[in-house]
Amino acid sequence: MTSINTLGFLLQVDITNFQMDSNTDPKTLIGFLIVVAVIVTVLVIVNSRKGTPGKKGGSGGGGGGGGASGIFSGFTMRRIARNIGLNSEQTKMLDYVLRTDQVADIEKSINTPALLDRHFRRAYRIIEQTTGAEKETQYKLAVLFSTRNLLENSSTSSITSTHLIKEETALVINNGKERLNINLLSAKGDNLAVEVPKTVLGSQIKISKGTRLSVLFFNKSNKGFAFETRVTGYSTVANHPAMLLAHSNQIRFLSQRRFRRRQAVIACNLFLVYVEGSGKKQRLIVDKRRVQGNIADISVGGCSIKTIAQVQVGARFKIEFNQGDMDLAALGQVLRTNRTNMNTIIHVKFIKVSQKSMNAINAFVYEYGRE
Question: Which of 65, 106, 131, 169 is the most buried (most CB within 10 A)?
């Protein structure tokens, strides 16, 4: 406030009081006016660079200073936000995130997922720990995750070689009419090492050496890719039997998931939900009988669940599970199913999820929480 008050005082000075008389040196007066002008200019610049994100619209409270608070970096941030399609609240949130972590090179951070997650993780924890109304905190976290998701979907980064695929990436292999789900064990060396595919009974499927395969996968940024390869042999990697595939430098971009997804093993209970009545009197009834399963992967848009129960496509379930110290729930509908070993994998689309549950799922998926 000191600089603001000083500026106000200088602007209130009546320059006409400094009239030249016969004893006044013109050079002295000109020098004084120049000094006043310089001070005013400096104070205007300093004040234009101050300030924190406003609290209106759920942008997350005050943030630290840094490179992102300058005039030109602020212009860059707004240009990027406009190009991505962020709304006003998401733009304020991005500004808050960048200021909080004192980002100096905005474009580098925007185009580097690891850096971006570091900035957003810090802002997430600050918002989560800030004392305030629960509803306001959950709203701010929802804006933070919606902003992060839009930034991720606008990313132009791509994978050009199978050498760049991360370990534990889920792969779908098309072998003729068969679709086999396996995980990548290692992309190092002369071959891709993947899990040996298995039948529904758990026995290994030995695909002949030289067989050509089509492979589909999604990276951490939700982008889908495909490449052609062939089986080069079998080995053991990290004490696991592995099928070896030839590397490829010709990877095709296919599509992009709407939300980031993360693999998991989370116990859950499923309760069948059915409709009772018709028209305006229609209501959803939750069956008290439960089916147990394990969530295999999850996003705020849905999840895959492994269960031994037989489940019909189109069925609706209330899904209850625990994440950290929170009990979460969602209403979902089964889109498709497939058998693997002795289990059924059901792919569920979430129909209704509370804001608090969505934030908890996002915190898990983006690995922002303390697990």
Answer: 106
Rounded to whole angstroms, what are the CA distances from 122 to 60, 65, 150, 369? 12, 14, 18, 10
Amino acid at 314: G
Which two three-digit tokens encode residue 89? 């609240």
Q: Which CATH class is domain 262-365?
A: mainly beta
Query: Could you count the other beta carbons within 10 Å of the beta carbon of residue 151?
Result: 22
In angstroms, the CA 141 to CA 97 distance is: 12
Contacts for 20 with CB less than 8 Å, ≥ 6 apart: 26, 29
Q: Helix crossing, 113-129 with 134-153: angle to 10°?
A: 170
Short-list 153, 176, 118, CA closest to 224 = 153
Q: Where are the domains of the chain?
A: 2-48, 67-153, 162-256, 262-365
Q: By the 8 A CB rule, do 313 and 305 touch?
A: no
CATH architecture of 162-256: Roll (2.30)
> What is the spatial distance between Cα 343 and Cα 303, in angstroms, rounded to a whole number?
16
pTM: 0.62
| Helical residues (DSSP H) of 49-160, grouped into ranges | 71-84, 88-100, 106-110, 113-129, 134-153
Q: Tens of pLDDT along the chain (371 residues)?
A: 444 444 443 444 444 444 445 555 666 667 667 766 767 666 555 544 444 344 444 444 333 344 444 444 678 888 888 888 899 999 999 999 998 888 888 888 888 888 999 999 999 999 988 867 899 999 999 999 999 988 887 765 568 899 999 888 989 998 877 888 899 999 999 999 999 998 867 788 999 999 999 999 987 766 788 999 999 999 999 888 999 999 999 888 876 678 888 989 999 999 999 888 777 777 888 888 899 999 999 999 999 999 988 888 999 999 999 987 889 999 999 999 887 777 889 999 999 999 999 999 999 999 997 65
- In whole angstroms, what is the distance from residue 91 CA to residue 73 CA? 14
